[in-house]
């Protein structure tokens, strides 16, 4: 059976920072690492929106990136 080790979570906030010559949105990212992996999705979304609202740029999306190392249980 596989077990998880070294779990980490990153909060990723996408913002529209402008547009290119064709009018397509240009996106910039704010990444906050070392987020507690046990934080609920709804709580992380709320925090991401609040941080996004502090920015001069328009908030595009709030994402969560979870990663871990899988190891076989002995």
Number of helices: 1
Which whole number gives the mean pLDDT?
Answer: 92
Please identify the structural class as seen in this structure: alpha+beta
Could you give the order of the helices and strands?
A: EEHE
What radius of gyration results from the CA coordinates?
Answer: 16 Å
Q: Which stretches of 5+ consecutive residues score pLDDT under 50? A: none
First-to-last CA distance: 8 Å
| Strand order in the largest sheet | 2-1-3
The shape, in one word, is elongated
Biggest β-sheet: count, sense, barrel? 3 strands, antiparallel
DSSP strand content: over 45%
Q: How many structural domains does the protein architecture include?
A: 1
- Please provide the count of β strands: 3
Percent of residues in helices comes to 10-25%
Write out key terms for the chains shown.
alpha+beta, single chain, elongated, 74 residues, 1 helix, 3 strands, 18% helix, three-stranded antiparallel sheet
